[in-house]
């Protein structure tokens, strides 16, 4: 542990800063999980690009992908909260649970065939991301949000509000959610990852709020550099362009793919039964 004394010449005050530094070793590097992000950021851009431009028409793929995302993220948060130390183990276990969770959501669609039920998973992802963005850009630094009860009440309130608004416009809402969430993943795993931006902390800081003790006392005030501004503008372009292209491709088609029971029904009534 090092203690740094810093004097500000204008204010003539001293600020004591404690920093903790650990020396890396092979064991810590083996469990840091850094080597997992390169293959992960090589696969996710392709999935995100497909969801941005064809997420609504490939409804089963999108349902599985968002189920995979939801199951993996929730499992990773839960394992982190339980104190599991190895990032590799947490990620592999969470990914397996996410695959099962994605298959369950696809099974729900095949069994029920209710569009609003399957689309709600996509709406909730968009709501979570919108809440994270609001908190990232200043809302979480306000004094009332340092209290966990107030913080999470507003957080889940934003999610529910987004879900309700998107549910009213089910098909356009689903298309927007695909373009919105897919664009964020696409930007974070491509330009932001390789250029060293800060947009990944939109979600990471919420994870820290859950898993890091006393993180509610931290003032975030994240930097927004020119490269972050460029990546954000490009992400907005992908949202708008993906939304427009999917709406255009959807013209003249059913709002959601018909359920399997409607596509493969057997006609039993004679067409000319009266004659």
TrEMBL record:
InterPro entries per UniProt: TM7S3/TM198-like_dom (IPR025256), TM7SF3 (IPR042502)
The keyword Membrane belongs to this UniProt entry's keyword annotation: yes
Domain of life according to the entry: Eukaryota
Gene Ontology terms: cellular component: membrane
Pfam families registered for this protein in UniProt: TM7S3_TM198
Keywords: Membrane, Transmembrane, Transmembrane helix
UniProt topology in membrane: Multi-pass membrane protein
Domain TM7S3/TM198-like per the UniProt entry, residue ranges: 41-246
Location relative to the cell: Membrane
Bilayer-crossing regions: 36-54, 61-79, 91-110, 117-138, 150-169, 176-195, 229-244
Protein name listed in UniProt: TM7S3/TM198-like domain-containing protein
């Amino acid at each position: 542990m090092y203690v740094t004394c810093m004097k500000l010449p204008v204010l003539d005050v001293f600020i004591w800063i404690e920093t903790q530094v650990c020396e890396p070793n092979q064991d810590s590097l083996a469990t840091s999980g850094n080597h997992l992000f390169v293959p992960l950021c090589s696969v996710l851009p392709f999935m995100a690009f497909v969801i941005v431009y064809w997420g609504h028409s490939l409804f089963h793929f999108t349902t599985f992908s968002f189920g995979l995302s939801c199951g993996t993220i929730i499992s990773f948060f839960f394992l982190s909260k339980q104190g599991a130390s190895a990032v590799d183990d947490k990620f592999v276990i969470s990914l397996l649970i996410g695959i099962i969770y994605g298959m369950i959501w696809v099974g729900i669609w095949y069994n029920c065939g209710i569009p609003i039920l399957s689309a709600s998973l996509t709406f909730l992802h968009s709501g979570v991301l919108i809440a994270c963005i609001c908190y990232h850009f200043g809302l979480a630094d306000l004094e009332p949000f340092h209290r966990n009860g107030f913080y999470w009440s507003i957080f889940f309130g934003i999610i529910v509000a987004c879900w309700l608004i998107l549910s009213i416009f089910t098909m356009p809402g689903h298309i927007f959610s695909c373009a919105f969430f897919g664009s964020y993943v696409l930007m974070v795993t491509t330009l932001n990852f390789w250029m060293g931006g800060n947009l990944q902390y939109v979600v990471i800081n919420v994870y820290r709020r859950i898993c890091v003790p006393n993180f509610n006392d931290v003032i975030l005030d994240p930097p927004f550099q020119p490269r972050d501004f460029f990546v954000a503008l490009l992400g907005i372009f992908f949202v708008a362009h993906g939304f427009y292209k999917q709406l255009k491709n959807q013209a003249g088609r059913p709002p959601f793919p018909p359920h399997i029971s409607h596509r493969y029904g057997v006609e039993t009534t004679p067409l000319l039964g009266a004659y």
